[in-house]
Amino acid sequence: MSKKVRVRFAPSPTGPLHIGGVRTALFNYLFAKKHGGDFVLRIEDTDQNRYVEGAEDYIVESLNWCGISFDEGPNKNEKFGPYRQSERKDLYKQYADELIASGNAYYAFDTAEQLDAERKGHEEKGKTFIYNWHNRERGRLVNSLVLTEAETKAKIEAGEDFVIRFKSPQDETLHLTDIIRGNMKIDTNVLDDKVLFKSDGMPTYHLANIVDDHLMEITHVIRGEEWLPSLALHQLLYNAFGWEAPEFAHLPLILKPTGKGKLSKRDGDKMGFPVFPLEYTAPDGTVSRGYKEDGYFPEAVVNFLAFLGWNPGTEQEIFSLEQLVADFDLARVNKAGARFDPDKTKWFNHHYMQQQLDLDLAEQFKAIRPELSNIDVNYIALVVGLIKERATFVNDFWDLSHFFFTAPTAYDEKASKKALKEGTADVMTKVIELVNTTDDFTVENLQTNIKGWITDNEIGFGKVMMPLRLALVGALQGPDVFDIMYMIGKTETVSRIEALIKQV
Ligand code: GLU
Questions:
Q1: With the C-alpha atoms ordered 347, 348, 349, 355, is the resulting torsion angle positive or negative?
Q2: Is the same domain home to 477 and 431?
Q3: Known binding positions for ATP
Q4: What is the pLDDT of residue 12?
Q5: How high is the pLDDT of residue 262?
Q6: What keywords tag this UniProt record (predicted)?
Q7: Catalytic residue flag (residue 265)
Q8: Which of 76, 93, 155, 265 is flagged as catalytic?
Q9: What does the alpha-carbon distance between residue 363 and residue 375 come to, in Å, rounded to a whole number?
Q10: pTM of this prediction?
Q11: CA of 8 to the centre of ligand 1 (A)
Q12: Contact 266, 288 (CB under 8 A)
């Protein structure tokens, strides 16, 4: 690659960024960083009808949270700026004019009603209406290919609404190349003459996208598969302008967990997982959950997104962002759809949880539980160290650890049946004695004293350990009993056992 690699992520601010959009941004970022190139964020907001307030901020915040930082974009290093297409509005008309002058585009004056009537008429005959070579010069459609130059000019000057359409070539075979999909051939006769520009002064996506990719010196276009049908037109536009086209890579679809059909927000709602990186409140007030607020670590989200369509070709599954940059290769991206696996996401989160410092996790834990507000964070960190292996989210911590902070207020019914037998009170009274006489209150000493007593008297471990655990935890769960005793201390241990004795 001789030219400096420049890629862009070009979302339209029409709502919250879907997790698939984050995957597209990630793959662009990885490719750019791998090749020492630039990653550009461009906001494609030419469709004012679909514009949603706040969507751009949401996009930027999502990328920031994931650690996918862009080199250029709105308010950042604007050397090819502006990066919002609405702010580049005045730039596109000249390119539309250029295509008209070169015979690659034409004015069309057909009203929405006329086009609707055409569509309906075709539908009634079981056909689909497409505006292209086979009807554009027949006379039914009103455009500058059939009108004289003077008639066209008069219409424009009279302020009639018009669009500028691309004149797709007839009877040509177009050869397209995609890094992921290889070579493709397209018969240009199947293409319709897409609108490039509207008389409201706004370009459509197609024109603005090609012009900007050219002006921003984009070398590789990496985007979702849903844009593959636009590739032919985009290639034709590059040809018409006489510009060198970038290389293209269309990423595979992200499929539902069942593997059938595209992943949608509804799948997430139904199966209980987010499809957005951050929580999103729509203008109508509806709230959609986000990975961040659900307790996922950004490292986990990035790692699982990387595997949606890409794999390293080895058994390795754990990749930091830096490792991904080093190993990423578009040649290893599949064209087959990538099945979304919410359980795998949790698996990654569990992994990244174990990597975090107990003290950091303790801070996060403390922040979400009012019960912990007066507790020393170093104590919380010790607790976290004992239970995090069993947790996927910081949100799981309380259920796994409340007994380190508060005495049980009730005993699990099933557990009580299992643990409380005749003689339990006597056994527990003896345990209190052993606890009280363990002067140096360490895990080892407690273990030696209590286990030693059990073996010496051939009592049977369950008879002691089950009620003891029930007394401390309120259920037959939790980490090692001796760890719990040590953590809560002698006095609290004794008082919990006494409380149990009162119950039996
Ligand atoms: N604005 C388009 C989108 O919303 C960009 C497609 C492309 O990358 O060319 O996804």
A1: positive
A2: yes
A3: 265
A4: 96
A5: 95
A6: Aminoacyl-tRNA synthetase, ATP-binding, Cytoplasm, Ligase, Nucleotide-binding, Protein biosynthesis
A7: yes
A8: 265
A9: 11
A10: 0.92
A11: 10
A12: no
Let me know how long the chain is.
Answer: 504
| DSSP string computed for 198-259 | ETTS-B-HHHHHHHHHHHTT--EEEEEGGGGGGHHHHHHHHHHHTPPPPEEEEEPPEEPTTS
246 lies in some domain? no
Residue type, 306: A
CATH number, domain containing residue 472:
1.10.10.350
3-state DSSP helix/strand/coil % of the chain, to nearest 5? 50, 10, 40
Distance 475 CA to ligand 1 centre (A): 54
Sequence-ordered list of residues with C-beta below 8 angstroms from that of 259, at least 6 positions apart, any chain: 337, 339
Specify if 397 maps to a domain.
yes
Query: For position 504, what pLDDT does the model report?
Result: 84
364 lies in the same domain as 430: no
Pocket test for ligand 1, best of 6, 9, 12 (most atoms within 8 A of CB): 12
Question: Residue 326: its pLDDT value, please?
Answer: 98
Per-residue pLDDT of 410-432, as tens digits, reads 999 999 999 999 999 999 999 99
Residues touching ligand 1 (Cβ under 6 Å) are: 10-12, 44, 205, 209, 223, 227
How many domains does the chain fold into? Answer: 2
Distance 224 CA to ligand 1 centre (A): 8
Task: Give residues with Cβ within 8 angstroms of 54, minimum separation 6.
Answer: none
Q: Is residue 216 part of a domain?
A: no
| Residue-level pLDDT at 392 | 98
Cα-to-centroid distance, 10 and ligand 1 (Å): 5
Predicted confidence (pLDDT) per residue in 18-49, tens digit: 999 999 999 999 999 999 999 999 999 998 88
Pocket test for ligand 1, best of 45, 88, 209 (most atoms within 8 A of CB): 209
pLDDT at 49: 87
Taking the CA atoms of 308, 314, 315 and 321 in sequence, report the sign of the dihedral they define: negative
- Ranges under pLDDT 70 in the chain: 1
The count of other CB atoms within 10 Å of the CB of residue 25 is 27
The minimum-distance atom of ligand 1 relative to the CA of 9 is: 8
Ligand 1 atom closest to residue 205's alpha carbon, by position in its atom list: 1
Six token digits for residue 68: 């996918």
Range of the domain at 365: 356-404
